[in-house]
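SAMPLE LOG
Freezer: B-3
Tube label: C17
Construct: single chain, 308 aa
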Amino acid sequence: MIDFKNVSKVYDNGTKALSNVNIHIDKGEFVFVVGASGAGKSTFLKLMMREEVPSSGTIKIKDYNLGEMKKRKIPYFRRNMGIVFQDFRLIPNMTVYDNVAFAMRVVGAKEKDIRKRVPYVINIVGLPQKAKCYPSELSGGEQQRVALARALVNNADIIIADEPTGNVDPQMSLEIVELLKRLNETGTTVIMVTHAHDLVKKFDNRVIVLDSGEVVSDGMVEDGEIPIHSSSHLNHEAKGKIKNKFTKKFGKKNKVEEPEKEPQKENPDEGFLNALIGDTDTYRVYLEDEETPAASVTADEEKGGDAE
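STRUCTURE (predicted):
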């Protein structure tokens, strides 16, 4: 579904953001992408959203080759994605309902579909009583859930969450990831970019680690630890260097044995989560007319030439 093949990105100012990145993500996967500031996470996201194009290599998402994509095709491509930002990016003078509805209006959805779909999605994220509130009247966690609802409302095949827990407390962080996991169980591909290693360790998911623009690790969390083995395309010499570097940063070297303690498991509020998604079978309620073109693109333009 998502393929990065030998992708490198060098900006005009000479900054090397990504170097020879090879990543494949299957439909329906839940993947964490982690790395320190400057590791290449933001560039990775911009390339996936087609805000940037690679300097070399190819990126394919579904049936789209992003390097060859014409500008007029970008809005249609992005309909496949729901994007959640760390800073929420809610429109301050719009209510919760209108913030979520806006995502449907910009793709030309019918008002009758909006009236049906928006309350349903607001209920999914547990905010039915806040539909008429403005962002300034919500807590940080509530604003993030509105951002999630906006990402979900168009039935996106792919959810991209950019540091979605960066501005909320630890309990809400767990609940946001659990919500994303439950959405993933309905078949949605979820890619969550984060620097919160402690949070990632609580979930048995695939983790891709970026460092200095390179993929240094790609594997499953095991026994609460982020994998330190390198990706299969890296050579033996690189594996040794990366393992030592990774151990210094994230691992536990020369661990001192301590008496075993009863683990204290931190769990999200199950009652809250069950209230969010009580019926996954009916989660994916599709619009009656999914092929309605965006208001800004006419049918004649869609049939027209490829002029930029």
